[in-house]
Amino acid sequence: MGFADALATGPLVLDGGLATQLEAGGADLSGELWSARLLRDDPAAIVAAHTAYLRAGADVLTTASYQATLPGFARAGIAAPEAAALLHRSVALARETARGRAWVAASAGPYGAMLADGSEYRGNYGLSVRELAAFHRPRLEILAEAAPDVLALETVPDAREAEALLTALDGLGVPAWLSFTVAGTRTRAGQPLAEAVALTAGVDAIVAVGVNCCDPADAAAAVPVARQASGGKPVVVYPNSGETWDATARAWTGDPLPPEIPPGAALVGGCCRVGPAAIEAVARAIGADRR
To answer: Is 214 annotated as a binding-site member?
Structure first.
């Protein structure tokens, strides 16, 4: 059974924030490579984080490749051959941890994640769709070579970048989900979510569409919008904890919200500040003992 078939068997539990768990384990993610640095410097820490989510009941483990790009690695002095090997390693580490008990999703974050300046929450990079597709294609090719079960095209802030990702995905032979980061009912770049999601209608390689890295209330509201605009595709939602990042104080404020299971979602998990305890609660709520 492939990943797309598994979506029809009932809701699948995604893991939570990988960086959240890595930091809880003492990892320093302050550099521009963020969690991707550990692919070279401390792969055991990544395995430990994956293991925590697997034990919590996750059906899907997401690789430590969100911020891993060839240009980003090059800026850190890592040449293309080693960068490709590290991208392959991200999938291998998740696969090694899963050992057939969970699916492996190869994460590909937006262009803004490579910039490491928060622009993934703004979009509008000033690049054309063609330029964005040329940026994304090499990394997606490398990740596809590593044979994940699905590609996670995630935290996409802009419909134009979604269009570029769909172009870059063409012919890779690996299914993908596409997940937007939103504020209310609009992408971070300001387009109506329904218009952005509609780009995926009729794209067979996209097996689920939805939102992540957003307020939990926005995630719940996005489910019917994403289902309708995509032509009935399964919906993926993995919001943040509900806390707010204070960029001036460089700290999270507010209290985390209890995890909720939005009705109609086929893939449910968490993003920033959502750890194994919250994923365990999600798993219990939707009966993740199916495995």
So the answer is: no
